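ok so i was messing around last nite and threw this chain in just to see what happens. nothing serious, just curious
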Amino acid sequence: METAYQSDIGQQRSENQDRVDSFTTDAGMQLDLVADGIGGNRGGDVAAQTTVQALGQRFLKSAPNDEAAAKQWLADQVQQVNDQIIDESRKNENYQGMGTTLVAAIFFNDRQKIVIANIGDSRGYIMHQNVLTQVTVDHSLVNELVKNGDLTEQEAAVSPQNNIITRAIGISHDAQIDVNVFPFEPGDQLLMCSDGLSKTVDKQELTQVLQSDAPLKDKCSVLVEKANAAGGPDNITVLISQNDQER
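result:
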């Protein structure tokens, strides 16, 4: 597995509250994480950093060894870190209301499947045979309105409510994550990102960058540059993992 990632403050933020990392066990299992913090007084930064570090360290100590275990592990670990962040926010008034979105992916040794979990509006995409598919569903007010027929997708794209999320770690003791399993074949690419990328760079541009023969680190840099060129209204974080097994 080849992996690269990059995080950028953007053009209009005073600090970067996104966090990204990738952890690989001695047995060759891998966990990719992207978190987008929520809250002032560095609260969002603390929530995102705590989530990424806690999940990464626990994965290195006790990585699940099959699909069913991975799904349960993600649900259990997200719930534990959720409670940890809520407790910390209650102890420190500066961190009240802090939280974070999360998209996480677990790869097994054989690289044939990928387990993806998300909460909030950070996203995961899979590039397979030059077709890019979003494999996570945003937990956002706008998305709920679209599903209910109260907004069209065109209206949602320009809605002033498109920054309101309906789920996140640290918001309530019931942290409901979505967990799904997808095939991940040789040559496939995983793209995970915060909404600083997905809300500024459209799917066609994402596809064009991933289709290129550039190294993964260069693809990350190009995507960050595109988001900043579009105004960079938020922190921008992108991670790309590619199944580098032979076809």
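not much to say yet. The first helix runs from residue 43 to 62.
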